[in-house]
Amino acid sequence: FFGDASAANTMFLLVWKKGQQMATFHTLEESNEFKAASNIEDSHVFHLKLTPTTSGAGGANNATGFRRLMYLSKSTEAEEVNSTYLAEMAGIATIRNQEIGVSGFLMYSDPFFFQVIEGTDEDLDFLFAKIGADPRHERCIVLANGPCTGRLYGDWHMKDSHIDSITSHPAMKTILYQIARSFSSMWSYLPKSAGHMLLLGKDPNKQPPEPMSVVVTFIYLVEFSSILSHPGLTEQCAEVLSTFVDVCVRNVEGSGGNIAKFITGICMAYWPINRAEDALTALQQINEDLAQLRGAQAPGSALSLMYSRSGVHYGRAMLCNAGTRKSDFTLLGDCINTASRVASLAVTLKSPLLFSFEVRCLLGDEMRDEIESAGMHQVKGRDKPVVVYQFPSPILDSDVVRQKIEQFNPGRYRCSMPVLDYETMNPAKRPPIFDNAPKGNPKIGKKYNAAAHRDSLVDRLTEIARLAFPGSQAGGDSTLISLTYLSNSVRPMSRLDLAAIQRTALRRNASQGITGCLLYVNGLFVQTIEGPRDNVINLYLKIREDPRHKDVVTVYMVPIQDRVYQEAWTMTTASEDMLATFPPLQDVLSQLAKSFTSLETYVPSTVVRYLTAGNNPRDLMPVSVECVMFATDICSFTMLTEKSSLEEVWMICNTFIDACTSAICAEGGEVIKLIGDCVTAYFPSERADNAVAASQELYMFCVHMREAFQEILDVRACIACGVGLDYGQVVMAQAGSLGLTEYAVAGAVSARVMEVEALSRDVGRAIVCTEPVVDRLSPPLRDS
Q1: pLDDT-derived band at 770, boundaries 50, 70, 90
Q2: What predicted TM-score, i.e. pTM, was given to this entire model?
Q3: 3-state SS, one letter per residue, for 709-772
């Protein structure tokens, strides 16, 4: 195996327990991190240079400069797929792939295809384009796509295998289905930037911020708050939002741009520096598309009230991951704030599209001849005035649009996405927009304690169980259920370790009527537990506390009629059982689990709870409900972005967002959006006290943060926040159908709460509540 250093692959081998345990790593740093995390003391590290002559899975391995791509898709002919079907498909692929030099494998587990292909960039791009257009499958999602040092499946120009040919054990088929189903459903909620990270096999949460020069825009749905406030248009709000999302996605992504996020009736998007003209053209096209849409509507349709307004700016920004418990891939920087100010200025100037002098400098002569100056104006948060430009076009007066909306009569028009009243719905049919488990009495003014902020797992499981078993009663529920979870081992597991786990499980679970299966694959635990609902949940809570694993994520929890696992307990180690028959199965399972764990933090909690209970998120009904709205941001953030480096801005936001999400979730709130330094959330109407408690905890966090860093030169010593609380009706609905899905929380109160938060600067108070919120506080808190 040892070859010439110039042609060799480098790896580091860690050996401990006198040679009984070994692990390999790509870098010495990875080896040292693993050693420290596992508390390994007596060990040796060997630096090896290897030149593999054959792959462990499929033949010759003498290629370099290759790429490996893994994808998941759903069969459109699931009832016809069997071993013969796969063999015919693989036979045709083998002939084609031999000609172009592509190797790989294809596996099927009803109803999903899992395929890996490896070859040159050109060959893979050509082949994957053909694969994506194949009508025999749909929802083709890339799980990994990155360079590889050699072929793993050299002689397999297309090895095929049906899961039934690999193993008759139900664990693998069940696990593959559950993870693949959840992953496929959640993918459309993922920010594209985070998705690209996953495609390259990277964890978005662990990526450093990436500075870049971008053209940034904020696209506003004009007077959407007026549509939300119109009592006759409430049921059409979801349809309006969904249409707005689709129009923006089609034009932004179609012009080479990226959607950063949707914020109720606002779209934030960006383009590379060399696509400034494409950006302006796309924004003009959005206006034209909405104009055509307005003219094509039936009488009474709120789609005839849709207008857009955009503000554009150019500058340096940082593409980064913000937050850990709830995450968002976003842009940070002074240019983002300026783009927002330009969009606000467009309202005053009655312009449908306004852009800064910096954007004008990026345009070619031909487009410069089309534009006209809109003057120099002072904007909020900036010392210097901003020079802006626009295209000659009819004015867009917000007052006229508002008047049109107020006078609009929908008549008997019925939209395709009606909004239902949450309170009048059957409790068993309500979407899981609230974490309904009791939180106890909020501790007002308590000291911030980061260590105390853990997953409210009992609450999450209670809510999932309510959705999965709507007829069950609290206490003593013996409904038969199945629960599947993923976790990562904190250290490599030997056969003795796994045997010890099995002995403990057999002794503990027999008396509880629990059966199941534990699968261990190269550091990954995948476990399914079956039994009476209360017993399963209690056991899972204990399993979560086990120090031998981490990063525990619930994948599936549903009622079952019959047990899949009849024995008291089974233990399956993939390396010795199923993977011996088909080694690539390890690649599929490991990549699926890794991607799923990363993906969950980006998806709204409502969607995760609904999906984990065995439902399709597309079936989430739009609802209107009254709730306490929460908004907070960092005081003087614009000034901080002007005077701090991009790295410092990212550090400030990450620290603040983590504190916000922890305080909100600990008090039973639901995070809606992470918008730069701003966090929005909502609380149930009866939890106004909890909203105040979260606000006070966040305030105390900022106080302690300033005290901790006041003696050193650190920008975190400047963190102070304002919090606004308001109460009102919002609409919660799915929006979008063109590959990007948004779970939106929209209402007049969602815009008004931002204004309430801004009042905290004017009145000199960190927390500002409106009168409707105060009316819902408990007497002791109201009196204080």
Answers
A1: very high
A2: 0.69
A3: HCCCCCHHHHCCEEEEEEEEEEEEEEECCCCCCEEEEECHHHHHHHHHHHHHHHHCCCEEECHH
